[in-house]
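User: Show me a protein chain along with its predicted structure.
Assistant: Here is one chain, sequence first, then structure tokens.
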Amino acid sequence: MLTKGTLVEGVENMEFEHQKKEKRPVLAICYDFDKTLSPDDMQAQGYIQSVGYDIREFWDESDRLARENDMDTNLAYMYKMVEESQGKIVFNRKSLAEYGSKVKLFPGVDTWFERIKEYGERYGVEIEHYIISSGLKEMIEGTSIAKKGVFKKIYASSFYFDARGVARWPAQVVNYTSKTQFLFRIEKGVLDINDSGVNDYFAPEHMRVPFRNMVYIGDSDTDIPCMKLVNTYGGHSIGVYNPKTQDKTKVYKMMNDNRIRYYASADYSEGQELEQLVKNIVEKTAAYEKLERQYVYNQQEAKERR
């Protein structure tokens, strides 16, 4: 449901629409992408090889570029992608989507989003899925899951494309600290990245998705600011680890540092631990929101009888 939002000064006729608070509770499940939904970095599943690089060599050079130039690491890898493509491959929106179509997914991911949404329906909870990633939006949009339209919004780094459709410049860069702004956008229903209405005051009862109704699923240090924010305000942060390697080093550290509330294998298949965990969160959300509505009703009635 949409309402009129912020009118931006200096931008001709640009008025943003805000998501209105729903009658039934909304549970927003937010996902990192690389090593959360996919077992490897998306750039390492076709692009890096196509420009003649060894995967480790590409990332080492990208990191060195960032260090030597006091540069954001995400800007560094995006710059390097543009530079290395020159004279080797066509680097446009279509080619990036094609690379995305080849990205591998963890077990069960292909049916996960519909299954969880259907489970929410049973309990009167509206499930919304969001991507919050430092990876490339154009690649994510090319994946089989994005093509199904399962995501309410994809927040990720992206390119500006010229009149010929060639990627020229970063249009949006998402790093580990800037990821948190998107949680506030989801909270308030102010989803457009250019909408300054995210800075407006919203009374707690008018928050479209209060933090208690957010789930953040990630795999590493880059997700910590989002995980900590969700945790602090009563939401649910879940660390995932690769089901093939069974390496729990990162989730153990995040758990011991109070960054996450739960961890599970990144196996999204039916009946697995992660599915049961999220189903329990759906059930808890349904029960809590019924009690919250009763509380608000009683509070309002009592005020009227003063």
